[in-house]
Amino acid sequence: MARTCAALYFACLILTAAPGPHAYRFAALAILCGFLALAFALRRFTRQDVTA
Fold this sequence. Notes:
Blueprint: H1 2-17, H2 23-46
Helix pairs in contact: 1-2
């Protein structure tokens, strides 16, 4: 999931750089996807195995 969000992040960054009236919408999506990618990556790294 983190990789998918990271790919969407970079795609939205590319679309933000393209000239157009809706670039700010892609910037907002890029921010959201960036935070999601970071959250899923941190969740993966901080997950602890609980053995009973």
